[in-house]
Amino acid sequence: MEKKEDGIRTLFTGRGSVFLDMAAIVVIFLCIAVLYAFYGTKKIYYNDEYVNLSDGWTAKDGQEYSISDLPKGDIMIIKNIEDVDPDGKRLCFKSIDTHLTVCFDGKPAYTYAPEYPSILGDSYGMYIHMIFIPEGTRSVTFTLHPVYYGASANIENIGIADAGMYMGDFYHNALPAFILSLLIVIFGVLMLIMGFTDAGSGSGKTVDFFSLASLAIIAGIWSVNDTCVVQVYTQHPEIMHFTTYLCLMFICYPPVSFVASATRQRKTVLLPLVFGLAAVNFVTTMVLSVLGIADVRQMLTFSHVNIGIAMASCIYLIVKAFKKKSVGMVFLHMILIGISSLVVFTFIDIIRFKVNPESSLGAGFFSRFGVMIFIFLINIHLIRERTRIAVENGQAELMKKLAFTDGLTQIANRAAFELKEEEIRKGHGKCFIVQLDINFLKKVNDEYGHAEGDRHIINTARIITESFENIGTCFRTGGDEFIVVTGNCSESDVNKALDKLEKLVSDYNKTEEPPVPLMIACGYAGCDPSKTDPEEAEKIADQRMYENKRRMKEASGL
Q1: Residue 44 in this model has a pLDDT that exceeds 80
Q2: Rounded to whole angstroms, how far apart are CA atoms 320 and 272?
Q3: What is the rounded CA–CA span in Å between residue 380 and residue 43?
């Protein structure tokens, strides 16, 4: 009974709680997807406001066709609309990779065969058309030319409707998918910002937000093409079409890069391999497009092959990391849930297409939910890793500060000075080394107590730091001993700093009136590490400091 209770407790705490939280997110998204799949794609038209022209088209040979089921190659089709009163309405439809001419009663009224640079490919993708119908029109004739040889002309959602209502219906159906795509892109941009913030922290340990950010942005841009919203807004469908294929060329690299980072396998040969394949695909496609030999769509097979190689690479890296136990089970759980969500939502898209093939939500609407969940789960892992690394870095920084900071004065200590010596030896450049010492500190401690002695030490550190703040760093190297190492400055700058030190000591003695006046002996020497060792300069500075100390003691009479 106890073991059973422990199992239940583990399920709701630690790793088990993470699994349940993720499962809850998947269930929520799944319910939303199902609702949209079967109840969220209704038309907003009424029968008397929209005339569907999908069926009843006749070719020259008298063969009747549905416009959604046309034969391959060029075709001219005509439809009688004399029983329809246009009354300010328009002929509205979406074309995909099809050049066309529209005639009303045999008179040419509209042609769409855009011309653009060959590098963009032969096709424009998809576009929405709304053509004014003259009053009294009796027939509509379409002359259709598929962009690609051996393909069928592709015309969808054709009808006579009020332009505003048609666009309202278009946005009604396209907006959910567009918003999902936009959210994926925004999610990616936020991760990109987090990546730059993380990289700018100066920490040696960082989390690879960039790979997942790139994946999200590329996936979001690719998926937005299916909505046709950008094409309608920009009036340049060919650019969005080309951008989509660019996304497919490069989308293979970010997931491999992310998995390699997450499993600590950045040195794997798979990274340069996948990147090289993407680069070769891009360069080859661009060259063939410019030469007119093939365009981006005809080279799509190579992008699909690269994506397959990338997926296999990710699986290999995850399995290898699991065997070596170099990746946590929580991360593997998130990967599994994310991949499962992709599979489930893709299956929903397949079922929805079988049940309602005319849905205007697009073929991959619910797959976007899967992408969103996958990226969201992995981002949770990245944020947790970032938090863990930030805590570790903070602890390391604190330990470093404790190791190299003098506890009493809060300035650098002897250990820090020893590191500075090594830095000078490795080519720090010319500098000055200033040795300083507090006079009569033993007398202060013996006669007035260590509290008064500490007061002397603390104020000495403050005065030296203020005096040399623009040209050097102060270190406390012993009980009453201090050393300043300057940057690349002149001897005149050192003397000015010592003059300032003398004035600050005088001001302190006047204002604070310590029982034994504060006196700081000093001596300095130049150091050129290319010629002499820093220790030689320290010895010379130390001798000069003791000479100054002797003179000060004789002058004080104490």
Answers
A1: no
A2: 18
A3: 38
